[in-house]
Request: fold
Amino acid sequence: MLVRSVSERHAPANESWKPMLGPSVAWYLCVAAFLFATGALGVLLRRNPLIVLLSLEIMLNGGNLALIGYARHLGDGAGQIFAIAVMAIAASEVVVGLGLVVAMNRKHLTLDVDRLNTLRG
Amino acid sequence: MTTGAWICLLSPLLGALLITLGGTRLSRRGAAYLSTASCFVAFAGALVSFAALLGKSGGDRHHVSTAWTWIQAGTYRSGFEVLVDPLSVMMMLIVSGVGALIVAYSIGYMDGDGEERRYFAYMSLFVFSMLLLVQGGNLILLLAGWGMVGLSSYLLIGFWHERPSAIAAAKKAFVMNAIGDAAMALALFLLIQKTGTLSFGALDAVHSSSVANLVALGLLGGAIAKSAQLPLHTWLPDAMEGPTPVSALIHAATMVTAGVYLIVRTHVIFEQAPKVQDLAAGLGAATLLLAGLIALVQVDIKRVIAYSTMSQIGYMFVGVGVGAYANGMFHLMTHAFFKALLFMAAGMVIHALAGEQDMRRMGGLRELMPRVRLAFLIGSLALVGIFPFAGFFSKDSILAAAMDRGAYGYILWVAGLAGTFLTGLYTFRMFYLVFGGERGAFVREHFHELGRGLVVVSMAVPVAVLTVLSVIGGWLQWAPFWHPVETWLQTVAEPLVSPTNWQEAVSSVVALALGLAGMGVAWMVYGARRWAVPSAPFWQRTLERKFYFDELYDTVFYRPAVWTAHALANWVERPLILGSGPEIGTETRDLGGLFARLQTGMIRTYALAIASSLAVLAIVFVAVK
Reply:
């Protein structure tokens, strides 16, 4: 399906395409950037792994919003499909991440990413 | 015809292989018998070839039998082939005949040594190698035999491997011979480049005199190393560390005379390079004098005979150097008889005195070993060249031939005559020291009979045969009257000189007189003891040190080599090679430590690095666009 949609995007003209109603794509991008920056700051500043994971999800959602905004702007389904793929990956990532957090808790490790520095050279 | 030659060549090889493969399944005596039998079969093969050649006319006495193509590369081709011609048959007879007698003698001499199997395998291998050398139908086979006799000689000199001196002597012989082998190989390479083949015919095809000079020089280098001539002679006296039959076979009768054979075999190239041929004669003359002088002060009985061997080979080199090939070969033959005899008689003396070789401890063996004394006396007389013993006929005709070579020949002639005097002196000094005088304390204490039965018989019979040969062997050719050896070798090597009867007569008379004079002086000093041993400390020291040749080589080659090795070890290997290994390791680890500091292990640092890098990239992207 992905392959077909890519080949359709390069088709000469999409007859049924019409500009959508609603705010322009710039607003979507602004919200997406805000979300992304919020998530990034969360990742950089917070030390609790749970909050870090949560912030990561916010970053991914910011990215998804940008993808969907562009998809709507260009009238192309590919962006939406990418967003779905990113969500699937995010779900898997959360599984791993939460699993790690649970494991840390079981080992009675402090839930502080700065204390997890065994890989220091 | 060539069947006999093949049997002659392969029988000793078969003997060596059987003894080697048989191992302990073969008794020690069995190995001795097998080796002796293989050598006698070889002698029979040589006799068959000889008889077949006798039946042919002079021009038809050159036969080559090729077994298979041994080496082929491009247009170059060498077969594994034997050559049957008068020269090779003569050498075959000497090598296998004297060889068989000496191996038979070894049965008794080596009895009870404990490692006879190894000894007899080596002996058979040597006889095979020597036969390969003389029968090889091309120069590359000759070189193969040349190298293999060097190997067998090395193995046999170092046979008593628990003696450090024997090992040192073996190595010395090997290294000295390797120098000669290398020179010879270079000559052969040049020959291949210029003529494209290594058959003996290639020597005729060299037309440039510079090439001829170089090839002849290389071959001469091989010849002087193998034949222990100046300046590559220092290995031979040390080679006496080997068992006495080995000295008799390899270092007297056969291998050391290979240089003479080589020059006769390749005389064509030497005739195109007359200066090199003169050099060969000159080196021979120098060696015969030098060795004769050194022999005067040696106290080890085998070393005296070894120096005498060098001296006699010097005569042969003079002979073939002036172009009297048949005379040189004839002296080679008679020398093989009487020198093997002297060595084996000396071996019996050494055996009877519990292995003692120092002549100062001998003396007074006259009544104890009368028959050995007789054999030794006949060998000595033949060596000095007293009529009617073998040396008289062969040595004097070499001197006469030298006379016929012009002014240079007269120098050689005088040197040869002086050598005759020295020969008489040192030979009979040895004879009187061993057999004359009173029995010393050592003899009284250690003398024992040689044993009974087979041990004595196997030693006595070869000595007896060689005694007879030393008496009658010379009569084969008496230069002015009959010369079958010269006629026999004529088709192989035409002599360059033809001394007149007058020259023969003068040489014989003067040489005989000088030999007798030398014997007389020896009798006065060592026999009757009427004259005191002349005292000349400087000369005595010089001669005992063998003219400082060992010291010279030590200084010129050994010490610089050791010094260079030490210098390289101290200044190159240790600081650079050994030092750089750990150094490289430390440097790498330090550098790694530097970079490792970047790895904080804190996830937020990484995230910040990624984020800031991305920001920088984005700014750059926007700015560039």
